[in-house]
Amino acid sequence: MGEYIGLDVSLKETAISVRRDGKRIWRGKCPSDPTLIAEVVRERAPAAQRVVFETGPLSVWFYHALSAEGLPAICIDARHAKAALDMAPNKTDANDADGLAHLAEVGFYRAVRVKGYDSMLVRTLVAARARLVQITTELSNQIRGLMKTFGLVVPRSKGGTFEAEVQRLLAGQEELARIILPMLEAWRSVRGRASALGRQLLASTRQNEACQRLMAIPGVGAITAASFTAAIEDPANFSTSRSVGAWLGLTTGAISPAKSTMMAISRGVATLISEGFSMKPRP
What we know:
Number of helices: 11
Radius of gyration: 26 Å
Helix content: 40-55%
Number of domains: 2
């Protein structure tokens, strides 16, 4: 019989529990570094059958790094593991690791598909660009609001026109200019960084065949195509095309007594897909 390992991962330390033949044979702690954890597992569990940990901020890194070390890494849904882990009399990292090791031994868990590094890079690029665009919009709105207090209304404008209008209105307003101009400089810098990330995303989609096919659809641009391909990753993960809609959160709902149906997307689902439709840069 082999060993079954449970990892309760945190940012600094990871609690490790090893079980064999229905009994815990060792448990301890290790810094949250997959390389160090792999060394401990090889020493304490040379015949490891399953190394189980929950979904979390470090799960993608842990899964790929432990798999590269040759360990049978399995990432399980934290929501499904919660019910079993909450049965422990004392809620500690060590007890959670014991619970995960027990789940690994009995096979009572639901493994989740961990995205590849390439897909995560695309998602990170989309999310970073979206955040910079949001900061740019917030800065421009703040500048407009502050200047409006002094009777200086910035006309509707974008990009360089917005900056020129602000500069024009601040002429002769030296005291106010000392406050607004640093914010305008920050707006210009963040906007340039957002544009640079946008160019990176566009170059990435031009080299991706799947993105090119999606962008051939009217209304689908680089951001939407990249977001969708990164979310789906591999079409073989879905048995039918209808499964994709359910996975993204598309649900049917009756809208008339005749029970005709429509498709609606649930709130909070397919975040990257929805962001792809609302990330047009604004000043």
